[in-house]
Amino acid sequence: QLERERERERTTTQQMEKICVAVRLRPPVTQEASDGTYWKAEDNRISLHKSLGTPISGNSYAFDHVFDQDCTNARVYELLTKDIIHAAVEGFNGTAFAYGQTSSGKTFTMNGSENDPGIIHLAVKDIFRKIQMITNREFLIRVSYMEIYNEEINDLFAVENQKLQIHESLERGIFVAGLREEIVNSAEQVLKLIQSGEVNRHFGETNMNVRSSRSHTIFRMVIESKGKDINSSSAYSSSDDAIRVSVLNLVDLAGSERIAKTGAGGVRLKEGKHINKSLMILGNVINKLSEGAKQRGHIPYRDSKLTRILQPALGGNAKTSIICTVAPEEIHIEETKGTLQFASRAKRITNCVQVNEILTDAALLKRQKLEIEELRKKLQGSHAEVLEQQILKLRNDMLKYELEREKLAMELEEERKSHKERDQCIREQQMKIDNLNSLVTFSDSDRTSSQEFVRQSVNVESFDSHNTCHDDAFKTPCFKAVPNAYVVKRSNYSTQPEYSPLPDTITNVADEDTWLKMNKGYIADLDSLHMTPARKVQSFDGCSNENYKQQVQNLKRQLELTIKEKDELKINHTEQILLNNRLMGEISELQQEAQLIREVPRQLRESVAYCKDVYKDVLSILQSFVPDEKSATAKLLSSTSEIGTNLFSTLETHFSMDMDGHRTSTMNNSLIQEQCKMLCEKLNSTVTSLVLSEAPTFEDEHLGTP
């Protein structure tokens, strides 16, 4: 038992935690304002809005954290990754990776720049800062750096280590064999190693990114710690010999890409295919893990090397955080929706995390002694109460297990019944299939036997014709097969007759002994028997075969006619579809023209209203220049204003009726004509009165002239 306990042990305290998911919106490439839709980050929610600021329904997502365009890498690390880094120092496995389309800011988030360091750099410095603060434990840190390029694992610390393989063991779990690990003791040493590994990483240029990552990279830190020899009396002090081993993975994924946007070809096209394939498998794994435990089926970890390496981080023993980076441009809306849906599914995954410890013999015995002492103290304090509680607990557990056992027994019995019924159905179906095959075989063999028997009958006639006597005496036909002649084989499904084939007619019948000897194979010359000649042996009429052939030909002709009709119907159907499409196009054009025509009355009404306002303004200005309101000019202007106003009002009414879709009736037309006549008469009367009023004035002025 001590040997089994010496293997990798887990503590009894387990924590169920959901994966922490955050979304980061990178700044736009160009500062031009978008006239269409855009993404907006508010609090912990990101949603799609129209150009006027109205949110679009069904396109809003909530996460643990949402970082806008102005957020720095330091803030992302503080809110998302810092707790995982500190937990890794305490013995918990941890994983943080960036996911998103190409050119969305994943590498910048993980690696950063000189002015804004990324998550990897901040995590390395924070780990060594945390270790320096812990004085009661000793630490040993190993680092490795790998990339997955075209589904091949390469060592970035040692270029010669290419195409490495993934293995799994009870002691180490899932690991990459042959991967170089460097023992480090300072943050500066780790950063130099990362810088040297970045030189060996695969990058390429595409239409969307000048320096695009063409591989997935995994920076791994293995943190081992052991308590120092410090005297302490606590039950779980650091004085035991338990060794904590935790694994921290910091992953920079290559971005998913569309060939139409990146313009990839040749080597870039091959790289993009492998990248999209591994990301698709990662999405399938996330989708399976997001389902319930009962509905969850096989999880395809082994379909990709990326998911195989990250298996403990996805639904296993690890604290995990995912940062999904998205692009704000309107052209990338579909890719952004896919990334947000991936993040929503990942948010539903729950991991079971616990401290990873390796116990030595001394540590195991020491811990057991301490637990025994604690239990002894509890029993001495309240012995009876503790026993009663334990008895009740055991009874409840036993009852629960009994109910579960009965339930399982019932389910097992139902399953057995269903298996029996299924087997019975399979046997019945097999018997039906065998019967059908037998019928088909019998019909084929029967048809063949009939044809062969006709030919054999002809051979028998020819053979008997040579054996008949030349005189008028009759002899018994010989049914023995000719040497090397074809003998008709009976079907396996037909019963064997107990006697030889009979002639058509028998006049005189022989005695039973003679007849039996003849049928047992003896060739007897029974001249005394008066039987029909051999030429009368069973003959078959060829009409049935001819009728059969004729029916087959008729069926073939009917089949050809049916095929021709089917082809004609297909051609007619295709023509009808083309005609319908053409008619639908014409209908849409006519609808557009009708819409334009409907807009004409509204435009005319607006023009008439505008002209009416202008007309009123002009007349008001003219009237302001006439000092005497009772003069003929003032009267003319007043009458003209009234006539024009009535005319414009009539036109507005007419266009309003047309705009509302009401057709003008004959009565409405007659009313308009009457209004026009009245306006003309009024205009004539106004002009006549103006002329008459101006004539005396002109004569007075003429007479007053010397």
Automatic annotation (TrEMBL):
<keyword id="KW-0505">Motor protein</keyword>
<dbReference type="GO" id="GO:1901987">
    <property type="term" value="P:regulation of cell cycle phase transition"/>
</dbReference>
<dbReference type="InterPro" id="IPR027640">
    <property type="entry name" value="Kinesin-like_fam"/>
</dbReference>
<dbReference type="GO" id="GO:0008017">
    <property type="term" value="F:microtubule binding"/>
</dbReference>
<protein>
    <recommendedName>
        <fullName>Kinesin-like protein</fullName>
    </recommendedName>
</protein>
<dbReference type="GO" id="GO:0042327">
    <property type="term" value="P:positive regulation of phosphorylation"/>
</dbReference>
<dbReference type="GO" id="GO:0005874">
    <property type="term" value="C:microtubule"/>
</dbReference>
<dbReference type="GO" id="GO:0140694">
    <property type="term" value="P:membraneless organelle assembly"/>
</dbReference>
<dbReference type="GO" id="GO:0008608">
    <property type="term" value="P:attachment of spindle microtubules to kinetochore"/>
</dbReference>
<keyword id="KW-0067">ATP-binding</keyword>
<dbReference type="InterPro" id="IPR019821">
    <property type="entry name" value="Kinesin_motor_CS"/>
</dbReference>
<comment type="similarity">
    <text>Belongs to the TRAFAC class myosin-kinesin ATPase superfamily. Kinesin family. KIN-7 subfamily.</text>
</comment>
<dbReference type="GO" id="GO:0033044">
    <property type="term" value="P:regulation of chromosome organization"/>
</dbReference>
<keyword id="KW-0547">Nucleotide-binding</keyword>
<dbReference type="GO" id="GO:0000779">
    <property type="term" value="C:condensed chromosome, centromeric region"/>
</dbReference>
<dbReference type="GO" id="GO:0005524">
    <property type="term" value="F:ATP binding"/>
</dbReference>
<dbReference type="GO" id="GO:0007018">
    <property type="term" value="P:microtubule-based movement"/>
</dbReference>
<dbReference type="GO" id="GO:0000226">
    <property type="term" value="P:microtubule cytoskeleton organization"/>
</dbReference>
<feature type="binding site">
    <location>
        <begin position="100"/>
        <end position="107"/>
    </location>
    <ligand>
        <name>ATP</name>
    </ligand>
</feature>
<dbReference type="InterPro" id="IPR027417">
    <property type="entry name" value="P-loop_NTPase"/>
</dbReference>
<dbReference type="GO" id="GO:0000278">
    <property type="term" value="P:mitotic cell cycle"/>
</dbReference>
<dbReference type="InterPro" id="IPR036961">
    <property type="entry name" value="Kinesin_motor_dom_sf"/>
</dbReference>
<feature type="coiled-coil region">
    <location>
        <begin position="365"/>
        <end position="429"/>
    </location>
</feature>
<keyword id="KW-0493">Microtubule</keyword>
<dbReference type="GO" id="GO:0003777">
    <property type="term" value="F:microtubule motor activity"/>
</dbReference>
<dbReference type="InterPro" id="IPR001752">
    <property type="entry name" value="Kinesin_motor_dom"/>
</dbReference>
<feature type="coiled-coil region">
    <location>
        <begin position="545"/>
        <end position="600"/>
    </location>
</feature>
<feature type="domain" description="Kinesin motor">
    <location>
        <begin position="18"/>
        <end position="349"/>
    </location>
</feature>
<dbReference type="GO" id="GO:0043515">
    <property type="term" value="F:kinetochore binding"/>
</dbReference>
<keyword id="KW-0175">Coiled coil</keyword>
<dbReference type="Pfam" id="PF00225">
    <property type="entry name" value="Kinesin"/>
</dbReference>
